[in-house]
User: Fold these one by one.
Assistant:
Number 1:
Amino acid sequence: MKKLFLLGLILSFCCVQPTLAATPKDTLVMASKIDDIITLDPAEIFEFSGAEYAANTYDRLINYDVDNVSDIYGGIAESWEISEDGLTFTFKIRQGVTFASGNKLTADDVVFSLRRVIILDKSPAFILTQFGFTPENVEQTITKVDDYTVKVVIDKPYAPTFLLYCLTSTAGSVVDMKEVMAHETDGDLGYNWLKTAYAGSGPYMLKTWKPSEILNLEANPNYWNEPAKLKRVIIRHINESANQRLLLEKGDIDMARNLRPDDLKGLEGNKDVKVRKKAKGAIWYLGLNQKNEYLSKPQVRQALKYLIDYQGMEQTILNGKATIHQAFLPKGFLGALEETPFTLDVDKAKALLKEAGLENGFSVTMDTRNNEPTTSMALSIQSTFAQAGIKLEIIPGEGKQTLTKYRARNHDIYIGRWGPDYMDPHTNADTFARNPDNSDDAKSKPLAWRNAWDIPEMTKKADAAVLEKDTKKRAEMYLELQREHQQVSPFVIMFQDIEILAERANVEGFILGPSFDSNFYQYTTK
Amino acid sequence: MLQMLTRRRLLKATRQTLKLLVIVSTTFFGLLLITFLIGRVVPIDPVLAVVGDKASPEVYEKARLAMGLHLPLWQQFLIYINNVLHGDLGVSVLTAKPVTEDIRRVFPATIELAVTATCIGVLVGIPLGVFSAVKRDSFLDHVTRVIGLLGYSLPIFWLGLMALMVFYAQLDWLPGPGRVDVFYEDIVEPVTGIMIVDCIIAREWEIMRNAIWHVILPASLLGYYSMAYLSRMTRSFMIEQLRQEYILTARVKGVTEWKVIWVHALGNCAIPLITVVALSFGGLLEGSVLTETVFAWPGLGLYLTNSLLNADMNAVLGATIVVGSIFLGVNLLSDFLYKVADPRAR
């Protein structure tokens, strides 16, 4: 029996042979967290990974330069004219574009795609409906002039770049009308089909999607522009940073997208791997609920801004994954304020607390997502708050759980991360500096509402800024708005995200943009 | 007289079956009620999972109505039961597909893993248990005990990461996470859903080898836990049996020691071992949640983890019901086998 056992052991070792590392030459294999993808329909996509998918498989009406966001250029809309009153946009549609299906792209597809976003009215629909489009009026406001011209009429004379930037977002993607309508059921405009399927014209097309498992893309043979350099892109969902690193070191993948600082550190000195960084638009902040008697005091709000160890966190916990930033517009946006007036200054904070009559401190809670780096950041904040006698109780919770509480305004302090929805400054001004109605049943519930911050005056200023046509003047208005906001708001804005990717040394040309919908695969080689 | 007897037997059988049905349906109802309540009690807004954080109030309200969340709880529960009985577990938020379809897709991967793990557990655990019972307090017995103890107490995700570190990263003997190497994905058409079988059908020998190779590490790890349990149980059953008089009789009769141990004694342990194996198989389904997460193994466990982390309640409830039902089924099966194997239990 013993012999048999030994034999079995030897046999099982015989099956084991060394691995044949290295991925196929024509394929980019990437490990990433893609479990946030809940739909593949550009009219519904609103998640980071989903936006990146759409950016590589669909063409949008307008694009921007990833290194200089203020440089807007034509995508499917080759050029445009704006009427004198600023209300009518006439877009010339690029000729000679075909969808992956082989259908020709015309003005009909563009009109259909835009109307579809508004009629379906999914999460990202507001990016277009904020211009006054409704399911009832789209027949009049978004129209075809001829086969290659589209006219769009908006409700107010906003800064012209506002609409153009909104059309650079995923909601501005053009879908193949014939293909989508061929799959329509019960008047759903093909929604139930496109949720898991593909009808675009981008450099890559969808081969298969297994949710939370794998996203498999193939070069689109009918692509109208320079064809994608690699034939296939495989994105494998790997949740664990340590696993991503292992696979990368072994050469079983070409790129790892979600490495934690400690794993990145472990890669230092590895000649087979290189690391690249790009500042992204998301910002880290604390939201101070104004329903809390302590937090509603202006001196307390100010004091807390002096009780954050910005430098310490940047260097240790975040270690390259974020940079200090203290205004609501991220660097790279029009009118972004780069001044960082706050540093850890316990004496100043104590003086401010004394002024508020709270020299003995107070107790307060903070709802914290139980992931990294949020938890470590919360611990750092807890210790610096304590130096001024503020007892911070951390309430850990799963992401959606803390968010549910935050949205119901049941928190004291919330530590969060906010990503812009499109590249126009209004996207963050709209949520951090506008609160048209602070009542519990308000129609719109921006972040200022969630923190019960009633600001009729500032709301007016933000509204004026989005209507300003002169770009330079508009930038000035946002700068001024942020300077005021920085001092008085119940938002302790701390950092701006940096995306870090690690790739094998032979991988070149992967474009990292300032937003997830501007990370492009098509020029990647290896 | 004979007729009377058969009738009585028939009556008894019917009564037993009815009793069983009542037990099964109550358990199943309890399972449904508890999973449903947990899904509603957690302080997570299910609408949020569908529309995301940035949806407008109108979009939010529309989704809430569509999900029936404005109805009273008991009404929601009735609708839910009705749907489940019709085989409809709802639509998963994460995959945009019916939960039943998702489970059908991911479950074979778990079966593949759990069956391989059970085989490893049985083939290694039982002989180890027998050895340590026969050579009590020997070196082998102590080693087995330590192995068993470690199996009980080490967290599986840690052991999984360590195993990857050693066998994949350092020694390069075994492949990394995943069911096959990434670039082999999506080549074989899923027929049964069990990768190795599908490869045989499609005659993709290269991929089959890759798949076998990939299953070794997670299955061994998962199998280790059932092995630890099985070897401990086998040991104590065997010690109990070896003390019996029939063993002495057999030895006196001159039966070879090998036969005494492996046929007579182990044969009598078979009955309780059936229950233990069945229970450990159920346990493996549970253990697969963490193993699959560590090894990026696309089965029910990973599906459950992902759904949980994304507050995809339909999927969580669906997967829980499936795992619960299987537990129930495996228990029934072991009861049945027990009766077949042991006339006293009839």
Number 2:
Amino acid sequence: MANIVIDKIKKTFGSFEALKEISLEVGDGEFVSLLGPSGCGKTTLLRIIAGLETETSGQILIGGTPVNGLAPKDRGLAMVFQNYAVFPHMTVFENVAFGLRMKKADQNRVKSQVDKAAALLHIEPYLDRYPNKLSGGQRQRVAVARALAVEPKVLLMDEPLSNLDALLRLEMRTELKAVLQASGTTTIYVTHDQTEAMGLSDRIAVMYDGRIEQIGAPVDIYSHPASRFVGGFMGSPPMNFIRLPVTNGTVKLGNMNHAVPASVEREIVLGLRGENVSLAPLAEGLRLDVRVAEPMGSHLLLTGTIANQPVRVILPPGESVKAGEAIGLKLAADRLTWLSPETGLALNHPSR
Amino acid sequence: MTAAQPSNFGSARKMLLWSGIAALCAWVLVPIYLVALGAFGGRSGVYQWPKSILPTGISLEPFLLFLRTEGVAGAFLNSLGAAAVTVVLSVLIGAPAGYALARYDFRGKDSFRLLVLLTRAFPLAILALPLTVSFIRIGLYDTVIGVGLVHTILALPFAALVTQGIFMGVPRELEEAAWVFGCSRPQAFFRIVAPLALPGLAATAVFAFVISWNEVFAASVLTVRNRTLTAYLLTVLSESPLHYRFAGGLLLILPSVIFIFAVRRYLFAIWGISSK
């Protein structure tokens, strides 16, 4: 168990800045996800923490000790790779035992640790098989068991579920959460899948273009995105952004006037989560011209336009709205995000 | 009737498969068989016409007689020695080069690959004289090691480029996983990369062996008394009776076949490098 302090880590590849002075603290036993689109630098950051890549500048401390310049094996961590990286010429048992064997652990300890990890991930039946006889999901379990068997201070995971099919991914996600809660290992988890990050993490660091856009608890990030990028990246459907005119410090939403943060003058961008609306009479609510209505079973997904700007909103499954209709929407006033049209940053974010 | 169709189709496929296998085997084995027939048939067998395909009237005697001929055994051992030097050196030098090419990006990588191949662009005939002179100066002339060194040069480009492909076939993540789980770089190489690359390295060794074993020109130029088998046979055979030539041919074929047979299991990927 150990905390991780990442202090102003910078990485350049030639003239390209992959990481721009990133700082991040991960508490002991905490599960933090690095979430972002491909090319945002999340994997580079993870590989720098692992020691597989060298930072251009900055410092990393694991459990209070600086690890810069240390070989990966001396950092007290374990890693799960995107394509599993289980050793094809070793049995599952030897794969799981690999880290312990390298530490010259005695036979009894190897046996007990492997059995423990195997039991945790339900791979006991395959211990004497070779990995090429296993399915992708089973190999992924072997990779996780191999990482947990060494009882690492820090566990790093690089998109561990992205090569699994959707159903298996959901199952492994749940299981991973249970296993990691039980072990209490400090974990950094890289993913581009926002539902994965939401479901697993204590905190999420949303990364974009080599920097951390926002860090916080999943619910905070979801409901109070710090920027247009975060709002658009998190959630399915993503947050709607509607540009609205401001008059005298208020915005007209249907027949209601809503006060907006004072710093804007002519226009403001409303960040609206699709589920923060309810049906209202057309005369009272904000007008939505419905283009497509999709009954999804659990909810009704409407795609259309508000003030000629594309939006997607979600209504309860019982509502009957048809394509081509115009409906009124009442917005949950306390759940709106107001963003600057110029910078894309949130104006009413709690941290500001 | 219709139910029988798939099985008919299946047996037809099987027929095709087996006839293909038979044709390929014949392609390789029939010439070897004929050479062997000539080698064991003795003087009378070679000139007999029409030839009998069946091995009638053969004995080991003519072949053994050939082996006892002065110089044959020595040349055979010289060839083995030169081939051994070639195999060991070209794998020891070529594999690290291949590893570097596979794992690292460095300035001039492509030109390096081209340069490596260019060593084969110089006809050996041009190099022969200067090589002979300098070999005489350093005392490598007319030695097995000297021939082995030249053969190593011939085999190295292939060794480097083939092993590059082999090491590229071993996923980098496997090596990184080994580093994370407690291996230093050399440990990771020997515990993870080398076992997985073994089939390919064996193939490279076979290749180097065959290059050295079959090479005539450099061996003829650079040796006088310590001839390799090819060089020896080249000088002797033109004056020899026909069944001697067959015996010589067989002696050239056999070690390659035996060597390939010995490492055959490494020529097929045993575990199949599976990254997904």
